[in-house]
UniProtKB/TrEMBL annotation:
Pfam families registered for this protein in UniProt: DUF7705 (PF24804)
The UniProt record lists the keyword Electron transport: no
Key words of the record: Signal
Residue span(s) of domain DUF7705: 21-498
InterPro entries recorded: DUF7705
Name of protein: DUF7705 domain-containing protein
Length: 499
């Protein structure tokens, strides 16, 4: 009888599946929040720090406790905040894990046992070691691994080719002149932003928690004078104690000097390389999702789209493996960052078409396994792709081909950008341009693992297929070279489910 019961349970698991969250804070429901901030320059490094801002890494991590019983809280009709203790008369208090001095750490500021001598005066290395330190302060014990925080990522698309700051497909190159290819107003255009931090606090009702990061790339700007003519970013998080989940409210604005900006909320690996990195990181993914066995669930409310150049990613997944299928090992000359991104801005152009085959992947694989070549005009779904670009260090590419920007990651990269189309409907993705856009907030459950196992990624002929293990899952926008564009969106219920 016991054996029969076990067989039934096994059968049910096979039929219905078993889902467990890969993130430390499933669905953003946990009262005690863990959130961090990182700012990158064009090639995912720091280059140099903004004056008086420290290294562009920060964290806001805290636990919530209650001094009183639930009955006492229910009876208390007039809660208020004690500003010194951040404790409401309702009995809640926030115990912060990261101090202001921790967040202000930057080059030249020693931290024995934390910041190495090698990193002390190197902005790139300092940011790496500071992130690991902040991660240790925020770390939450869990199974199968501890985790640290959600990551707010901000990136500046300006590139001064005369600076010598960025490698070419992972290889160091001297400064060069290439006017017009990348935005840059001149010397200093790759600067990090200012960072202002409103540490999470309880508001006057004694139950609502709110915190924020914001700033601008115009280092001399006064945000009190308004946002006209300057760039701006903002992320505000808010939740009621014991009720619902966190809502992350994002805003991103470009300017004439900084027309190419990116802002995402990421669930990154808790150790090892996250997507776009070549060094150890900290994040939220206590289990790394692997194709085809994971889904992503989230609620997205886009309030302003950011104009026609806003490549808003409903979800973006990032990983790293070599062209021979082996995992990345930190050798930036042979590692390749791989990205797949679903763009839901209905104003996005369809660059992949029969007359521009170099913008299309060599083939498309349908859900049933049928594979069609991009030259098959009767069956290839051109409208399902915005653009495909191949790794710049690949040696056996099928022509015609477009290679990815060689400078915007520490190593070569491969990018596959998708658009809403009926072929993605079986995976829960939008099927029409405009689905989920401004005025159409939705909760999505996306079979990201199932879709990502069917996507084309380059690999050297005759090599063992790479395991598609994804070290970053994120949502947000990349405003690509547009002045004075504004995007605004709310993200909540974010979860990565292992199926």
């Amino acid at each position: 009888m016991q054996q029969l019961a076990l067989s039934v349970i096994t059968l049910l698991l096979l039929v219905h599946g078993h889902e467990g969250s890969a993130v430390g804070d499933p669905g953003m429901k946990r009262d005690g929040l863990r959130v961090a901030f990182e700012a990158w320059n064009f090639c995912n490094e720091v280059g140099f720090e903004a004056p008086h801002m420290g290294s562009p890494r920060a964290a806001d991590c805290f636990d919530v406790s209650s001094k009183y019983s639930k009955a006492h809280i229910m009876l208390n009709h007039s809660p208020h905040i004690d500003d010194q203790s951040n404790t409401a008369t309702s009995g809640y208090s926030l115990a912060h894990k990261v101090s202001d001095s921790d967040n202000e750490l930057g080059i030249g500021k020693p931290k024995p046992g934390i910041i190495s001598e090698l990193a002390l005066h190197n902005p790139d290395l300092y940011a790496v070691e500071k992130e690991l330190y902040l991660g240790s302060l925020c770390q939450v014990p869990d199974k199968p691994n501890p985790w640290s925080f959600w990551m707010v990522m901000l990136k500046n698309g300006n590139y001064d080719t005369k600076s010598g700051l960025c490698p070419q497909n992972g290889k160091k190159i001297p400064p060069f002149s290439q006017p017009g290819l990348f935005p840059c107003f001149g010397n200093g255009c790759m600067n990090p932003p200012t960072l202002n931090h409103g540490k999470t606090e309880l508001l006057g009702d004694g139950q609502t928690m709110r915190g924020w990061f914001n700033g601008t790339y115009e280092l001399e700007a006064d945000l009190g004078n308004g946002l006209d003519g300057i760039s701006y970013y903002e992320v505000v998080w808010e939740k009621r104690v014991g009720v619902g989940g966190w809502v992350f409210k994002h805003k991103l604005k470009t300017s004439a000097k900084y027309p190419w900006l990116m802002l995402y909320l990421r669930a990154d690996a808790t150790k090892g390389f996250s997507g776009g990195y070549h060094y150890d990181t900290r994040g939220m993914l206590k289990t790394l999702p692997e194709s085809p066995n994971f889904k992503v669930r989230l609620t997205l409310n886009i309030k302003q789209g950011g104009g026609p150049k806003s490549q808003f990613y409903l979800v973006d997944i990032g990983s790293c493996w070599k062209n021979n299928g082996q995992p990345c090992d930190g050798d930036v000359t042979t590692d390749v960052t791989r990205y797949s991104e679903m763009i839901i801005n209905p104003e996005t152009a369809i660059w992949c078409n029969p007359k521009s085959l170099h913008n299309c992947p060599p083939y498309h694989t349908f859900r049933n396994g049928t594979r069609v070549h991009r030259t098959d005009q009767g069956r290839f779904p051109y409208e399902a792709y915005h653009v495909y670009c191949a790794p710049g260090n690949a040696k056996h590419l099928e022509l015609p081909v477009g290679t990815c920007d060689a400078y915007s990651n520490p190593q070569a990269q491969e990018i596959l950008q998708l658009l809403p189309h009926p072929v993605w409907g079986e995976y829960g993705y939008p099927t029409r341009m405009g689905d989920g856009w401004v005025g159409d907030p939705r909760t999505w459950e996306l079979d990201v693992g199932g879709l990502s196992t069917r996507l084309y990624f380059y690999q050297d002929p005759g090599t063992t297929p790479a395991r598609r293990i994804w070290t970053s899952v994120d949502v947000g926008t990349e405003i690509y070279k547009e002045d004075e564009a504004i995007a605004e969106w709310d993200l909540s219920d974010f979860d990565v489910l292992i199926t």
